[in-house]
Amino acid sequence: MKYKYPVYQPNLSGNEKNYVNECLDSTWISSKGKFIKNFEDNFSRLVNIKYSAGVSNGTVALHVALLALGVGKEDEVIVPTFTYIASVNAITYAGAKPVFVDSDPVTWQIDPKKIKEKITGKTKAVMAVHLYGHPCDMDSIKKIAIKNNLYVIEDCAEAIGTNYNSKHVGSFGDVATFSFFGNKAITTGEGGMVCTNNLETYNMAIRIKGQGLARDQEYFHDIIGYNYRMTNICAAIGCAQLERIEDILERKRKLAKNYINGIKVLGIDYHKETGNVKHSYWMFTILVNSEKERTKLRNFLAENGIETRPTFHPVHTMPMYFEKESYPVAEDLGKRGINLPSYPDLTDEDVDYIIGKIKSFYNVS
Ligand SMILES: Cc1ncc(COP(=O)(O)O)c(C=O)c1O
User: Fold this and answer.
1) Structural domains in the chain, sorted by start
2) Listing from the earlier edge strand, what are the strands of the sheet with 51-55?
3) Ligand 1 pocket: which of 179, 282, 312 to mutate (most atoms <8 Å of CB)?
4) pLDDT tens, 88-132?
C-alpha cells in the first residue's frame, strides 16, 4: 500500500545527483575516491570527534566497533532490550553475549540504575543506544563504566543531531556508530560510520573493515577482517546530505513541536525531551493507553493514508534471545508506542492533517 504520508522519506534535492554523477563520470564507484574522505572529515566535524571511518551500514559499524575494542568470546555486553535488533545482533556476531537491561520510563533509554545488577566478571562493555533521537544518561553510564572498568559503545544510529549536555552524542564513549539508512536524519542509501577519539581504536576499525590488511605491507593480511567498506557513491550522497543537515534537523524539531502542540488537547503521552539534552526526534513517537488502542489508531490512520510504525518489540521477547525474565518498562513501551511520520519534507499543513485525524479518532474537535 502506498501511503500519502509515509513514516519516512529522505530529501535528496541538493547536490546528491551531481555528486553521484561525478562518481560515475570519473569511474570512482567503489570504496576509493574523494567523497569518502570528505564525508568522513565533515562527519567528524559534526560530531566533534577526531576519527570517523565510513562503513557499509550501521549494523556492521557496531560489529567493527565491538571488534576494534577487542570484544569477543566469553565477554558479556550490556544492552537495552528496548532497541532495534541490530544492536543486539552485532554483539552476537562478535561472539559475545548480550545481557539485557530495562529502560527508564521517562527517557525510554537504558536505565543506569539497572545496569549495576547485570555486571559480572565477564562484562566487557555497555552499549548505550540513543533510541528515537533522545540521548541516554551518559553521565551515569560513564560513572558506572569507569568504576567497573568497562568500555562504552554508543549506538547513535537514530541520534544524528542529538546532544547531551550541549555535546553531540558519539563523543562520550570509547567508540560510537551511526547509520545512514534511507530513514535516518541523513542518508547514504545504505551506510554507517564508526567514530572514536582513540587512534588505536580507529586504526583497528580501518583494518577490520578492510579485510584485515596489515598496515605497511601490500596484500598482506594479519587479522581476519571483513569487507565492510563504504562506496564513493554512498559517500557522495552523504556529502550532499551534510550540506543541508542543519536545515533537516531544524525542520524535524519543528515538526515535533507542531505534533506536541497539536496533541496537547488530547493529553496523549509522547517521547519527551528530558534533561539538559537536545532530542533530534528521529521519529516523533506517541504512547497510547493500550496495545488494542494502538492497533485501532494505526489502522484508522492507515485508512487515511498515514503510515505509522509500532515501537520496537523488546529483543528478549524474540525467539533467538528469548528470556522469561520480565523487563516491564521495555515491554510496556513496546506495546503502546506509535512512530508518526517524521520526514523533513512534511509541511506544517501535513502535520495539521495528521493531528486532525488523530483527533477525529478520539472524537475531539
Ligand atoms: C538503534 C539502531 N542500531 C543499529 C541500526 C542498524 O543500522 P543499519 O540499518 O544501517 O544497518 C539501526 C537501524 O535502523 C538502529 O535503529
Assistant:
1) 16-243 (3.40.640.10), 245-361 (3.90.1150.10)
2) 51-55, 192-196, 175-179, 151-155, 123-129, 76-80, 97-101
3) 179
4) 999 999 999 999 999 999 999 999 999 999 999 999 999 999 999
